[in-house]
Structures are given as C-alpha cells and as structure tokens.
Design brief:
Blueprint: E1 3-6, H1 8-17, H2 22-42, E2 51-53, E3 62-67, E4 75-83, E5 86-94, H3 101-117
Parallel strand pairs: 1-5
Antiparallel strand pairs: 2-3, 3-4, 4-5
C-alpha cells in the first residue's frame, strides 16, 4: 500500500468530533492509518473487525468502525475508498443513530466523485 490519503474536510471533521484536541487527533489519525495499512497489506479483507464494505449505491465505499484506544468512549466511523494502492478517507463522523449514517454515506460518495473528477 502506498498510503492513506485524507480528504481535508475529513480531517476537519475528525477535529470537530474530538473537540479540536490536536494531540488526541494526531493519535487517532495514527491509529486509523495503522489499522488501514495493516488491513490492506494483509489481504485478509474480513479478518480485521470493524471494517466492512457498504452495500447498494454505496458499494464503492468501505467503513471502519472504531471505539477505544486514543478515541476513549467515542464511537467513530471512517468512510473510505480504495483506489489502486491507496485508501482515501472521505468522511469521519461520530456514531449517534443508525438512521443518520445514510447522510454521511451520501457525503462520502459526493466527495469520491469529486476526487475522481480531478
């Protein structure tokens, strides 16, 4: 894998979720990137719990669900896409209600289309 890329808006969303705590955000970014790189390089697509492909019109997207570690009790969702040898993180949000997730999936899909257009 050549790396994990972050949409700048996803980085801003992470800071919002964590309450602008830059030191904590740095630890969370490292944690997320390490998980994604390990998952991608192992080719054990289903082996790392918390990572799943989305379905239906969102089938080009993947979701990482995480809680604990640098996150503490915060339940975080990271929506990303695979492009060649890279994971591109499109949006990050704090899980609150299942019904809200569709809104974030649509946002990620819009951003992915923007990336593909460039």
């Amino acid at each position: 894998m050549k790396g994990v890329l972050w949409d700048s808006r996803a980085q801003e969303e992470l800071l919002e979720v964590l309450g602008k705590e830059k030191q904590k955000a740095s630890a969370v970014v490292s944690q997320i990137e390490a998980i994604l790189e390990s998952w991608f390089s192992s080719r054990a697509w289903e082996a790392i719990s918390g990572i799943k492909p989305l379905k239906g019109k969102f089938r080009s997207l993947w979701q990482l669900s995480r809680k604990g570690g640098a996150l503490g009790k915060t339940s975080l969702r990271v929506i990303f896409v695979l492009q060649g040898q890279q994971c591109i993180i499109l949006t990050v949000f704090k899980k609150q209600k299942e019904t809200q997730e569709q809104r974030y999936y649509r946002r990620a899909l819009r951003r992915w289309r923007e990336h593909k257009g460039n």
